[in-house]
Specification:
The protein is α+β, with helices and mostly antiparallel strands and about 90 residues long. Helices cover about 35% and strands about 35% of the residues.
Length: about 90
């Protein structure tokens, strides 16, 4: 995946977190350095705005599934405070 594809990929991404379905919206990608980006996005219907920092190399090497997993995990921790998914 390239850097330009990350924001459209993230906008509208949805997943279950406990009894709720979370939808990500308004993703923003800002360069921090020439090789690092700060990504923030809203969780629709909430005041949560999770952020994470990704390197260009990490974005370009990752598959959409891997990046989706990273974004979902960051969001799940931000909203629920739980680091691991319960079985």
């Amino acid at each position: 995946m390239n850097v330009e594809e990350l924001v459209p990929f993230t906008n509208g991404l949805s997943f279950a977190a406990g009894p709720h379905t979370l939808v990500l919206d308004h993703a923003r990608l800002r360069p921090v350095t020439s090789d690092e980006f700060d990504m923030s996005f809203r969780v629709a219907g909430t005041d949560f705005v999770p952020r994470l920092r990704l390197s260009r190399a990490r974005i370009e090497k990752a598959t959409p599934e891997e990046l989706g997993r990273i974004v979902r995990q960051v969001t799940r921790v931000a909203v629920t405070g739980l680091r691991h998914r319960r079985s």
